[in-house]
Every structure is written in structure tokens, then in C-alpha cells.
Design a protein that fits this description.
Layout: E1 4-13, E2 16-25, E3 35-37, E4 53-55, E5 61-67, H1 69-74, H2 82-90, H3 104-110, H4 149-155, H5 163-169, H6 182-205, H7 224-233, E6 244-250
Pfam family, one: A2M_BRD
Organism: Paramuricea clavata
Protein name: Complement C3-like
Amino acid sequence: MSPHARFVAYYRVNNELVVDSAILEVEEELPNQVSFLGNQHPQKAPGDSHMIEIQSSPHSKVGILAVDQSVYLLRNDKHLTSDEVYKRMKSHDLGCGTGAGENNKDVLNRGGLAVMTTINNLKTDTRPDYSCAANARRKRRNAAVVVDPQCCQLGEKVDAGTCQARAMNFSVSNESSSFHPRDDCVIQFYKCCYKRFEMDVRQRSGDVDVPNNLLNGLDLDQHPELLKSLLEDAQLRTNFPEKWLYEDGKAG
């Protein structure tokens, strides 16, 4: 019944079938709750040791995985999370809606129930797969390009280099269909870095060589020199050796 169940009620009156349906929402929760305790983002140098604590049900088999951030930058579409599990479970829902419909047959179809009855020779439709019929109403396209949030998160990390130097060395692959175009990511990386580390310092010192309106949506026409230097000098990383550590253990 997770993540939800369907309830279909019907009765017969005067050789007609009266039908209604509803969804019973079930709390999205996995049977074994695992929690990670301690500092989520410790500042550690290469070779340093760090203690982590994981809590779960007794005698659970726990896998600990550490992966180089660059691996997820290259391909993050296979990263399994609890949300992905719930999403996959919902994709197998046979229903396509609840409540009233055009007629009793439509209500049964939307409720995901297969019915064959002699009442007015009622027979619900069959579907080739789990998908529902597409809505004929067209949705308005969103022309705005949404940049991966990791581009901004990496720009906000503490680093000794200047934002422009870091942006020039920032490397992502534009060959992965799961990642946004390199130019947009480099721009977002620089904007977030500049906003966090350099804007206040430059304003106090009177150094305003980078306009403040850069932070509110970059205008390519007004700042061609800056963008050209950022995008042309940015180095493209092509070598992504797998760097990971994996260990199994049992919760006491």
C-alpha cells in the first residue's frame, strides 16, 4: 500500500453502476531508518582521519560509500535516494485520477480498476503499460534555463583562489546529458563565488570592476569581455578516474 492505495466504491441501482473513488495516502517511510550523525561537512586535509557514526536497526547490514565529487558532476542520474524509490513505486500506479468522471466507466478507468460486467455490457479500457493518456491541454514552455544547483554550491566552497581564477579552472563535462551546458554552469559558479566572498570586500575598497548587476542575471551584451575570459579560459576536464571507497559493516 505504499506510497498510497486506491479505494473504489460502487453499487448497482436500476441496472446502472454508480462508482466513486479516492486515494488513501500512506506515509512515505522505509522500514529501516538509517541516520548519519556528526559533522556533515568537516574540514579535513588529505590523509586526516575522521570518525563517523551511523544508526540503524539492530544487526542491519550497512554500506558506507565515499565517492569523488567529480564522479557525480559527470553523471548523477543513477544516484539512488529514498525519493527515487518512492517515485519508482508511484510509477507503477494503475490509476490515473480520482473522484468523479464523465461516466461510471471513466471513474473505473481513472481508478485503475479492470471491470467486466453484464450491466449495460460495461467493460473498462485496457492500457499497454502503466502510463496514463496524455493531457490534451498544452503546457506553457519555460524558456528559462535551470542550472544545476551543484554549480552554485561548488562556487560557494572555501578556496584560496580568486573567484575568476577558480571559474577558469572549474571543470565540468558537457558531454553528459544529465548535466547542464558548461557555459551556464561556469557563469553560475562565478556568480555564487563572487556574491559570497568578494562582493563586500570590493564594495568597501571601492573596487567595482565587476558590476553588482552581474548577480541579478548576467547580461551577455553588457559584459562581453568578462564572459569571454571566463568561458574561453575555463579548462575542460576529460579524465575522470574512479575514486571511491566502500566498506560493509553490521549495526550492533
